[in-house]
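Let's practice the habit of predicting before peeking. Look at the sequence and jot down your guess about where helices and strands might fall. Then scroll down.
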Amino acid sequence: MGALIEDYGIIGDTRTVALVDRSGSIDWWCAPRIDSGACFAALVGEPRHGRWLISTVEPTEEVNRAYHPDTLVLETIHRTAGGTVAVIDFMSPDAGDPTIFRVVEGREGTVSMQLELIARFDYGSIIPWVQRTGDGLTLVAGGDGLVFSSPIPLQGRDFTTVAEFSVSKGQQVGFSLAWYPAVEMPPLALDPLAALRRTEAWWQTWVGRCTYAGEWRDDVVRSLITLKALSYAPTGAITAAATTSLPEQIGGVRNWDYRYSWLRDASFTLEALLLSGYTEEALAWHHWLRRAVAGKPGDVQIMYGVGGERRLTELELDWLPGYEGSRPVRIGNQASEQFQLDVFGEVLDAAWTAVRSEMGQRVVEHQDPHGAVGDLLPEMMQHLESVWNHPDDSIWEIRGPRRHFTHSKVMAWVAFDRAIRIADALGWDSLPIDRWADLRDEIHEQVCARGWSEAQQSFVQYYGSERLDSSLLMLARVGFLPPTDPRIIGTVDAIQRELVVDGFVLRYATEDIDTVDGLPPGEGTFLLTTFWLADNLALIGRRDEAMALFERLRALQNDVGLFSEEYDPVSGRMLGNVPQAFSHLAFIISAASLSMGEHGPMAKRTRAG
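Done guessing? Here is the structure:
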């Protein structure tokens, strides 16, 4: 058995992300992009599918790790009987090619170390040609090349590169592994120690722009750094997670590829970034959106590749056994072809956040002539007018029949509401605001009539159902009804009654044989919606409960401040892809809301409705 999901830390350069476990094994790295093929795929396979290990030869008695302050430089300290050694892992945002650097530094005594490099392109399926260079190796297959720089002698053994060396107190040994196009000359190796200084300075400068001043600042900054790591700087895209196919249930089939840019996830992320002063990232994403939806802006997809790619064909990699036997391992995502009505509401809500914030004025001013969504808004709204009354696949990307999901209709209401507010604020008198207002009112009336259950005393998952869904916790958060409305309080109470497991919230019930999503039963509790429950408890005046739940959630971070997608309260294990943007952005927004009270983002949003 490999490492637990919570055993992984990340390093990244705002182009790609690598996962490093506590033992010193890099088990996941896609290059040159976060959604490229993996050259280290042991995370969802075995070591033979690719990894880079640097560890102690003798048993480690204690392992401690932390990020250097305000950076994405990960330091892991191993204590053995013979001494103490640190392994410092990072990637440099200003390096010319995606490059992993590893610096081994002796702290006490003398420690024997071992190195094992197994590079396998295309998710573990291709063994590269290996050639020696003056100070290392080149590894090439197809269009992919790696150049490995090492100051110590290397040996080849069974298609694996190995080495042993020792470090004493004060001694530093640096390695680098850079991706490059195989048809070009390999790049010159960069000095790892000089790269370390530049990387620390780069991240500390970025963190210095943060305007968040509330409680839990260190944790919020760590989550902001994580969100930045999940961005793709060359285009401005923001991805949902760094990995694919980490299971929502160990041994199950709910294993999805999250290395793409969902409009919903990115819109939520923008709110967290704007809240913290990061307008450049918001502006870059708006530019990416305009390029991605070119042609028919109204008929948007729910997700795109980080370069704006539209075809994200879903495939199963049958040569990989999956994380702890959780198969299939998937790349691509069939949900890219789904119709999800709520996306319009999330994009327009993010645009309204930008327009009405002082920080967001910079976003508006950079987009002539119409601001944050500019000429996209009329196109999107015209399309929404024709489709809002259709059934859809829901926020949860249901793979069963389409239905009239209550949350989806509410977010259609949000889209019309925010479009009206944006048009009013920016003086767009030529837009059909009166017609949008009529549709907004019609949707509101329909949801209250058809999405409400007298038996449950709650809004329900879809029209005509008695099922509950944690997405209904969005109703108060977007201002659909005031938090004090009995229907909101009833919905919160019902969700606590039926969807809470040991204090954490399920997305919806999956234990029935006829699950609404068309998949086999079973998954963990969902961190995003548990944060939403904390927000709702605070909004309805149950602040002590909200704080207690928030602190329980905060305690789920692993030792370097990362959240996954889900959590299993029974086994006490993280589940799902990691790090998960949903979880980190929800943490930031909840922290701001709880620390800022009536001036926080949730209180402002409920008033906005």
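How did you do? The chain has two domains: 5-185, 213-608.
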